[in-house]
Amino acid sequence: MPLPPPRIVEHEVRIQGLDPRHDGVRIAQLSDIHVGATTPREHIRAAVAAANAANPDLVVLTGDYVCWRRHEAPLVADQLAGLTASRVLAVLGNHDYFTWGAGVTHSLESNGYEVLKNRTTIAHVRGAPLAMVGVDDPVTRHDDLDTAFAGAPTGMTKIVLCHSPNHGPQLAARDADLVLSGHTHGGQIYVRGITDRLMKRLGLNYRRGMYPVGERTTMYVTPGVGFSGVTRRVGEGTDAEVAVLVLRRDEPLT
Going from the N-terminus, what domains does the chain have, and what CATH number goes with each? Predict the structure, then answer.
């Protein structure tokens, strides 16, 4: 039976102090691509097409582009090619470092995508600056929050890319406005109660969806695009997706 293509899931995110020019900015997020034997190329190409069709201002990629084998790294350049937003920003995940971090980085950069390794870049979107903070993979201990946030101006809206959502509380403490993560696949094979206990035992505190973290931070954990282990996604909240986050100004109550 053919795989269903990744669906587009759109969410509005309200942000305190958002520049009025950023109200309505669209950010498409793809994560956990996992090129190789378990994720068909046409499935990944469908995700790229869906992201482009969403007409995003920015595209962000939040890690795990490969599975386990070094020869998968060059496949990333071909299978993720063609994202058409003005800027495509990426961070690496644990599978990328388990496999070949330098090779995955090269493949992403060969498409003109920017890999943020504990670095902030300023994206000028609709005439206003937006701080995009890339935190390198925490699972493999490549993260350095001090370095990542060093270039983030005080008072500017901060969108943080971090593969593992478990860093959410630490990122909220750094005044992140929106954190975009993946890593969990929504459980991939989700059986209520059983999968939840297994994830908790593994220290995975956020499965999928939108979470308030701290006093003002929103975190979105996408189930991602690809497959790990088996080419199946089963159960609530596991469908392959391209997430579109629409920024909205959170007006103060008067």
Answer: 7-250 (3.60.21.10)
